[in-house]
Fold this sequence. Notes:
Elements: E1 22-28, H1 41-45, E2 55-61
Antiparallel strand pairs: 1-2
Amino acid sequence: MVWLEIEPQSAEALLGMEVGHELVDVLKRGIRAAMGAVPSPAVFYTRSPARPNPLALHPVTVREIAARC
């Protein structure tokens, strides 16, 4: 099980979220070292599945909401 912790300054954006809601978690991640520092522009043109993508999308279901005091 994975827990997501929301910073207090962002909590207002989640008003109305309830247990059972389905969300998409968007994470920014680093480009794999094996890809090299600068990918070839042709990688994007060919729509290769190996092109670097700094975003990771994960479908999640809210199981619990706990307030931090």
